Amino acid sequence: MVITHHGGQCFKVTFGDLTLAFDPVAKGATLPSSRFGADIVFVSRHHPDMNGVEEMTYGEKTPFVISGPGEYERQGVVAQGFFSHSAYGLAKGRTEAANTVFAVHLEDMTLVHLGALSDHELSREAREGIDEIDVLFVPVGGSGVLSPSAAHELAVSLEPKIIIPMHWNGMGDPAALESYLKGAGTDGERVDKLTLKKKDLAGRDGSILVITP
Prior knowledge:
Distance between the termini: 17 Å
CATH architecture: 4-Layer Sandwich
Number of helices: 3
CATH superfamily: Ribonuclease Z/Hydroxyacylglutathione hydrolase-like
CATH class: Alpha Beta
Order of helices and strands: EEEEEEEEEHEHEHEEE
Structural class: mainly beta
CATH topology: Metallo-beta-lactamase, Chain A
Shape: globular
Strand order of the largest sheet: 6-7-8-9-10-11-14-12
Helix content: 10-25%
Largest sheet: 8 strands, mixed
Number of domains: 1
């Protein structure tokens, strides 16, 4: 499995010939969009910064889109979506919007992408439905998603093997990543991409990896 960061909350996960995309950026969003072909696209929040499905339709790939709570199975990938809340990019007069937390099972590993989460705790349904987390993608930017301190507290409580901060590049507080790392008492490991197999998780216990876009 190879994980790359494409700004904001957008991550590309590839294994073999299969490509997943989380929260791709749409054209005309506040962030520059990326374009690549994906087999499955996960959209946590219906906002241009996170719902660029058209940008993932490329070459011979037309993605299967998962954009809400429920159970899904596609091309050997098993996923669950759990309802939660976001306060990111709200329309005038709104105080919150729907956000989906995704748990994705593949290659004997569980990835959890929290999306544009503003809730400081996951729902009981999510906590009961998500077992051991291998890789956790957590928003740290504040301004409608978790603040750095709240992100750290939630991430620690979920006990993942690896934590990947997001929502710090091109969105959120410009100092959010540094604040998050300072609160966690680490500089984190910085990589251009993360190549991961199940055996690589041995000895990992909440390791923070910063994947640079």
